[in-house]
Each structure stands twice: as C-alpha cells, then as structure tokens.
Specification:
1 helix, three-stranded parallel sheet
Amino acid sequence: MTRLLVIQPDDSDPPASLGDWLTEAGAELDVVRPFAEPLPALDGYQGLVCLGGEMGAMDDLKHPWLKDI
C-alpha cells in the first residue's frame, strides 16, 4: 500500500475530495497539522502532499510553526 504524508497547514483547508480520491485509489494517508503537532520523519512514506491555507511565506510572526517546515 502507498503511504502518503499529508501536511494540513490550516484547518480551513482539509484533504476533503483529494483525500477521498487518494484513499479510493488505495493510498493510506497520515494527515499532520503542523500548527498542532510536530512533523514526523519522512521514512516509510512514498509521497508527500502539502495542502494550502491562508498563510504566506512571509507570515512567520503570525504562524510561528512555519519556520519548522
């Protein structure tokens, strides 16, 4: 089975239809919300999906966890 790490940087942008499509295609998804939990090591994953959100690349002060990604 293909195991994918899905990074969800914002509660307003969940995997939704993309997540459904990937799981229907046979992928196992591990969804991580970096504002609430640390990112895991990439060992054991065959792919990475990073979803969007309201933040931008220069928003470190508003979203301090961005510097860790």
